[in-house]
Amino acid sequence: MSLEPEVMEQELSKMTISVIVPTWNEEQWLPRLLRSLTSVKNIHEIIVADNKSVDKTAFIAKACGCKVINGGKPGEARNAGAKVARGDILLFIDADVIINPEVVGQVIRHFTMPEIVAVHVRLSPLAPSFFTALCFRVMDYYFEVLSRVGLAQGIGPFMAIRKDAFFRVQGFMEQLAVGEDLDMFRRLKSIGQVRYERSVAVHVSARRFAIENPLFYAMKCVLWAFLRLIGTKASIFPYNWAPYPAAVSEREGLPVHQLLI
């Protein structure tokens, strides 16, 4: 169903967005994300769900006017943020992402169609190696093929979800050791349409490839994607939580102490 342009603009003007950012020691990346969000229309609030960071993450978030709440691992943090969110659309964004305002505008337009319950977009890696760029390209084609055959899968850096749909599927499955974002799209597809928007992209750090063996990490991601696609809760390989070295942010052109205050 499509709306007349003037009706669409009226619907868009009434939509509100709650941005939810799960964090854990993100002082090197969070300022960049918050800066990129400053000119995005329709944002009602930015909620930072923090997992007991020991750096300046919470301080930066509060100084920038964000609502800071207790988080946990990503699934727990996103659920905690959703519980206090007041917007019509829940926009889950990881701290290592850069947002172009036009991307959000393009994504939100999809929600003028009531059958759309979630939207995700193409991801573009920052400062990628050849292998990392190849992995992101394969991921893009994988998501596109799934959407063409009526399946849905996506990952956590950028997920826009209609709030009522989010609670209809009871949020993220916190018991999953890894891939709760992959699982979320599968369950959302059971109650509505999930749109993969390839015409726009958000930039995201490829930092995970810097702290693990890139080939082994890519193979684990393929396995986790398959396991979540078929609906199993198994993970086989755990997700190793580790701090990201400052050198990674420096390679991406981010001064370590580049704050917004």
Tell me what the structure shows.
The longest helix has 19 residues, at 130-148. The radius of gyration is 17 Å and the shape is globular. Strands 3-2-1-4-7-6-8-5 form an eight-stranded mixed sheet, sandwiched between helices. Helix 8 packs parallel to helix 10 (214-229). The chain is of the alpha/beta class. The chain is 41% helix and 21% strand. It is built from eleven helices and eight strands. Helix 3 (57-63) links the parallel strand 2 (43-50) and strand 3.
Number of domains: 1
Strand content: 15-25%
Rg measurement, Å: 17 Å
SSE string: HEHEHEHEEHEHEHHEHHH
Chain-wise SSE layout:
Elements lengths: L4 H10 L2 E7 L6 H8 L5 E8 L6 H7 L3 E4 L3 H11 L4 E5 L3 E2 L2 H10 L5 E11 L3 H19 L9 E5 H6 L11 H10 L3 E13 L2 H4 L2 H16 L16 H6 L10
Brief sketch in words of this structure:
With 261 residues, the chain is of the alpha/beta class. It contains 11 helices and 8 strands. α2 links the parallel β1 (17-23) and β2.
